[in-house]
Amino acid sequence: MTTDSIPVETADARPGTAQKERKDSPRGKRSRQLFRHPGAGRQHHAGPVAYILLGIASLFSLFPLYWTMVAASSDNTRVTQSPPPFLPGPHLLENLGKAWQDAALGKAMLNSMIVAGVIALSTVLFATLAGFAFAKLRFKGRNVLLMLVIGTMLVPPQLGVVPLFMLMTELGWGQRLPAVIFPTLVSAVGVFFMRQYLTEALPDELVEAGRVDGAHSLRIFWSIVLPIARPPMAVLFMITFVHAWNDFFWPFIVLDMTNPTVPVALTQLSAGYVRDQSLIMAGALLGTLPLLAMFIIFGRQIVGGIMQGAVKG
Amino acid sequence: MAISTSTPPDGAPGTAPSDGSGTGTERQRRRTLLHRLDVRGAPYAFVAPFFVVFAAFSFYPLIYTSWISLHRVELSTLDVMEWVGFDNYTALWEDDRFWNALFNTFTIGVLSTVPQLLMALGLAHLLNYQLRGSTFFRVAALTPYATSVGAAALVFTMLFERDFGMINWMLSLFGVDNVDWENNKWAAQTAISTIVIWRWTGYNALLYLAAMQAIPRDRYEAAAIDGASRWQQFLKVTVPGIRSTIVFTIVLSTIGATQLFGEPLIFGQGPNGITGGADNQYQTLGLLLYEEGWKNYQMGRAATVAWAMFLLLIVVFIVQRLVARVLARRA
User: CB of A100 within 8 Å of any CB in chain B?
Assistant: First the structure.
């Protein structure tokens, strides 16, 4: 597993030193046994119990999604019978098509693609710029400003919805995508994430060499920072995309059903008077598919990115 | 790398050999001036986008919220603001729905956050073993995170259906009568918490796992020499080793819990969602804010609720800090 390889290697280097100690250890057999089972560390191979528990956890994680597919491929009577069905039915495409039309998901998909795409792109660009400045450039007030960035993470944007709504109405952006895009053009988490990465991954000498060669800051950013920062930028893009795609509160308030994003459009499905459960599930499945596809392809990288942001954060 | 650092990029200033003429030194002077401006100014230009966006769309709205909360503003006439002083606050204080929503936000917050973080800790511990297929288990744990509130809430609403839901069917296998997950207050709050737990446990587990992998191995070895059992090692080495991450996740999920909105809204399916059930049995502060502003058209009242949510957050943080300090002193 490539995501594991780096930490595992460093961890594997340590048992060597432990082995040395083992030989020198005066405590004999007991301590030798203890060294062989050093505790909760990663070196422990998982026993059957761990695998069973992890299997159960994975089942809990994946079953609701599997069942969405089962329900989406059945008709309403099959979904509402008891005991409920556990295997997919024959109506998947039919239901997906109907849900696509009923919830106007075509437009919602396009909107969500635009919103999440633009937000992710601009977040990556601005976060990398700011992250580079915080990591490698010297300027007055750097630490204070960095603390400010971190502090903003504690202010949930939802609290400002009333003035934000009034502002957007005044700008003429009510029910329009810019109202959703602009407030999240860049995130504190992104800035911090890029800063942490560049602090370690970008050697000071490279920046200084660029300076000596007379490159200005933007040029250094373009030619030295960007090539190095590509992997975390990709991860940040995906994580931001997921967040922007799933954002609900603010889009629900400022957009309406004539011009929704996917999560907003999905509320339409359950609010109707006649509820066709299989159609609702078909809509939920459609709304989730793009992100699921992304997870199936890039899941390892996304996992790695979240863990990377965490160690240092 | 796009450029090699030993050779200057084409057209880079300051590298062209100066011929020593008057225009050359002047050009050089201008260049050093530009260079200085670049070195001094560029960092601020680079961090500016973040602060501009934050100031315009987070900070200004947050402050302006308190001003609006002192006015009567209606959704249909947003530019007409009538000063009412603290009327909105006294009205909110005397409003049963506010105390109900505050209480619900708190109980759902506890019901969703505590099991979520404990389960995440256990899951991270399991993922920390040397595993075959560890990538699969990690991605599987994170998959719910890729599901939007909308989709997740729709699925769970159906799983928790009273008459044909999967969960009641499973309970019936154990002889439990059908539970009315929507109308029974505690059942509804449990169901809503389940949605939150499902979506966020894996994410938190990965944060814990990352921190666990950074714990130096010799700490475990030292504990083992002292004869600590695995469980003791988990309590005495692992948990203290990832303390800052635990604090981080507590802060994040607390913020999330005070803002809870989408899950109860969709769980209520339509008009019942905004009021948090027919008897407000699961109305959160987020829902109350929305109800006041966009159903009752009272934006001033909505701003008051938002400000109350902010105060709640501050109070919770102070309490958390105090508790942490007391615990740290004891340890």
Answer: no
List the one residue out of B261, B310, B276, B295 whose CA is nearest residue B74.
B295
CB contact under 8 A, B150 and A284: yes
CA-based R_g, chain B, Å: 28
What gap in Å lies between CA B73 and CA B301, rounded to an integer? 8
Residue B290's pLDDT is 93
- Contacts with B198 from chain A: Cβ below 8 Å: 60-61, 64
Task: Tell me, yes or no, whether A202 lies in a domain.
Answer: yes
Contacts of residue B240 in chain A, CB cutoff 8 Å?
none
Residue B79 — φ and ψ, nearest 5°?
-85, -5
For A62, counting Cβ atoms within 10 Å of its Cβ (0-12 exposed, 13-18 middle, 19+ buried), the class is middle
Which residues numbered 106-165 in A keep a CB inside 8 Å of some CB on B? 126-127, 129-130, 132-134, 137-139, 142, 145, 148-149, 152, 154-165
Domain count, chain A: 1
Closest CA to A58 of B114, B141, B210: B141
Q: Which class is domain B87-146+195-330? A: mainly alpha
Q: A248 pLDDT exceeds 50?
A: yes
Q: Where are the domains of chain B?
A: 87-146+195-330
Inside any domain, residue A39: no
CA atoms within 13 A on the CB side of A280: 28
Question: Hey, are the CB atoms on A129 and B49 less than 8 Å from each other?
Answer: yes
Is residue A221 a part of any domain in this protein?
A: yes
Range of the domain at A167: 103-271
Residue B304 in contact with residue B89, Cβ under 8 Å?
yes
CA A12 to CA B313: how far, in whole Å?
44
Residue closest to A298 by CA, chosen among A220, A223, A225, A242? A242
CA dist., res. A268 & res. A276, Å (int): 12
Q: How far apart are CA A199 and CA A189, in angstroms?
A: 15
Between A36 and A87, name the one with better pLDDT.
A87
Interchain contact, A155 vs B58, CB within 8 Å: yes
pLDDT tens digits along B302-329: 999 999 999 888 898 898 889 888 888 8
Measured between beta carbons, the chain A residues lying within 8 angstroms of B209 are: 307
What is the C-alpha end-to-end distance of chain A, expressed in Å?
24
For B71, the 3-state DSSP assignment is strand
pLDDT digits (tens, 9 = 90+) for A152-173: 888 887 889 999 999 999 899 9
Joined together, the tokens standing for residue B170 give 């499973």
We report the CATH number of the domain holding residue A194 as 1.10.3720.10
**What confidence tens digit (pLDDT) does each residue in B190-218 have?**
999 999 999 999 999 999 999 998 888 88
Among B175, B146, B189, CA closest to B279? B189
B226 in A contact zone (CB under 8 Å): no
Residue A244 in contact with residue A184, Cβ under 8 Å?
Answer: yes
Residue A41 in domain: no
Interface contact flag, A219 B9, Cβ < 8 Å: yes
